[in-house]
Amino acid sequence: MTNKNHLSEAFKQTKHQIVGHGRRDIQTLKEALKDIDGQQESDMYGTGKIIDDFQTKMARFLGKEAAVFFPSGTMAQQIALRIWCDRKGLKKVAYHPLCHLEIHEEDGLKELHHIEPILLADKNRVIQLEDVVGMKEEVSCLLLELPQREIGGQLPDYKTLVSISTYCREKGIKLHLDGARLFEVLPYYQKTAAEICELFDSVYVSFYKGIGGLAGAILAGDESFTNESKVWKRRHGGDLISLYPYIISADYYFEQRLHKMNQYYQESIELASLFNQCHSVSTIPSEPVSNMFHVHFDGSKEKVEAILIDIYQKTGIGLTGNLREVNKKESYYEVSIGDRYADVPKEELKKVFDVLDKSMRAIS
Ligand SMILES: Cc1ncc(COP(=O)(O)O)c(C=O)c1O
């Protein structure tokens, strides 16, 4: 068994796990369906009451004219950027070097749509107005990912968002929001979803991250944009004959969890502060701005994995099943707070950090 398996096995065997909502098992769907009338008609190839109602609900919530349900954010966002590029007749977009399209989609944007990305900003920080103003090349669209997941979920401040939005409108650059975790950042901004989305021409949100549904995404914008996106959805094979398991679960967990985003955010601040009190451990950002952050260890992956496994066995509390190497002397993992954190006994949690602090001292 590799170390990684040791860690993930030890994690699975703990009584309490402090991240996420729970196991991704079939019960997630069964629960969402429990009060649904079985005689209801399925959606059919992107039409029907179930999909129409949810799209209308989300368009309203996001303050946009219209919305379209997609099986994945990957599909929705490539299509959004394609539409903006076609409209301007320029196949260039700008985004962060660590955004999802650049590092997790096997170059779909380049291979399928022949769109060239311009990478903005240093990879360890978020895009600022100066990066946009200083762009040497013309682009059709700028994509902002809020929060910027791969750097611990950092965010630009609201003033920066407004200034980027104003600048893009003046220059005829469309602004697209990768809001995979938009719901999760609303408590930090103290804004409604519609107030944030108002700054953007098109918006994508996800239903299986903080919301915890099965899968699925909404792409929203004005009606001519969303109508065009439906054509591309058909071309991409995204019009599954029935999407209702995804739509019903998206709606169910949206209702269950939207109002808990502030709780997750506050819990994430609390948890980050516990990590930051430990020797050779720090979080990025130092104070989280959403339910997520990264935990960095001044210790090799091998050594820290051994420490984590020991903690799991001593306390019955699991922190992560997946530690990643930064270099030979540092390692990190991503935290995303969901329903589980509230169930972890605080006294037990204190023990975790006592052991972590001592063990990190011992290896430094
Ligand atoms: C920031 C961000 N954008 C886009 C996506 C793509 O979403 P999907 O898995 O629905 O394709 C993800 C998925 O993890 C993401 O984290």
Automatic annotation (TrEMBL):
Cofactor(s), by name: pyridoxal 5'-phosphate
UniProt xrefs under InterPro entries: ArAA_b-elim_lyase/Thr_aldolase, PyrdxlP-dep_Trfase, PyrdxlP-dep_Trfase_major, PyrdxlP-dep_Trfase_small
Pfam family, one: Beta_elim_lyase
Keyword Zinc-finger appears in the UniProt entry: no
Endoplasmic reticulum among keywords: no
This protein's UniProt keywords: Pyridoxal phosphate
Boundaries of every Aromatic amino acid beta-eliminating lyase/threonine aldolase domain copy: 41-295
UniProt-listed PANTHER family: L-THREONINE ALDOLASE, L-THREONINE ALDOLASE-RELATED
UniProt name for this protein: Threonine aldolase family protein
Organism: Metabacillus herbersteinensis
